[in-house]
Amino acid sequence: MAPMMLVLLAAVAGVAVAADVPCRPMQELYPSGKELCERMWDGAFVYETDLSRAYTMWFFERDNPNDKVSHKLGKTPPNKCYLQYLHKTVPGPEPDNFTECHPWKNRACCRQQTVSSPEKIIQNYGPEWRWDRCGTLSAACERFFVQEACFYECDPNAGLYRMYSDKDFDASNPRHNKWQIEGMPIRADYCDSWWAACRNDLFCALEQGNHYVCAAEYEKADGQGYFYTLVKSIVSWFTQ
Ligand SMILES: *[C@@H]1O[C@H](CO)[C@@H](O)[C@H](O)[C@H]1NC(C)=O
């Protein structure tokens, strides 16, 4: 290949290299479970040490303990699904094969088709939101991402923390949405366990591990497309 051509290809590939998003072990991004819960999810969740006033992303009881938490916080567990992403409009039972998000089987805002397995869940939000963009997570760590997704999609109480409530929602404002939550108190011990399980796993390092900032950057990088990836691999083949 002519040297001039190689220089040109390297310049083009430089764009794609710049778009590469850095990865770091989660214990370097988040000093503790507090930063993991709060920063990773861009303020959707708040680390709460008073466990009687904090929601859990998973449970083993027959009745959802988050309903009691809502009462304790002076709210009513909703009989509607206020969040709208893949959610139903009202909570209800799911079929017998509803196993992945089983705690919510009797009363869920999610549908079996959308949460049938981790492989299904990880595809739900587009490639930029995948939790394995820095490589496959350990099983111990991935479990927490699955639980968070079940909690977000299935628990009616999450709808109490919608960023733009029905009252405030303005469909003509492009910043408004029906999927985002804000300031939902999560049990500190749950966040600490998540951190303990994930501390050695790699995650996107932008803004010290802000999943939302990372997703926006991955979307841009992915948009540069197949051509740049191809050029980059040709250049690396010639320059190795
Ligand atoms: C689960 O059960 C429902 C209803 O019985 C069915 O429609 C669905 O195909 C089953 N399988 C999965 C993987 O959702």
Automatic annotation (TrEMBL):
A GO term, aspect molecular function:
signaling receptor activity
Q: Which residues form the Folate receptor-like domain?
A: 81-213
Q: Does the keyword Signal apply?
A: yes
Ordered alphabetically, the record's keywords are: Disulfide bond, Signal
Pfam families noted in UniProt = Folate_rec (PF03024)
Endpoints of the signal sequence: 1-18
Per its UniProt record, what PANTHER family does this chain match?
Answer: FOLATE RECEPTOR, FOLATE RECEPTOR 1-RELATED
Q: What family name appears in the similarity comment?
A: Belongs to the folate receptor family.
- Give the protein's recorded name: Uncharacterized protein LOC109480990
What organism does the record attribute this protein to? Branchiostoma belcheri
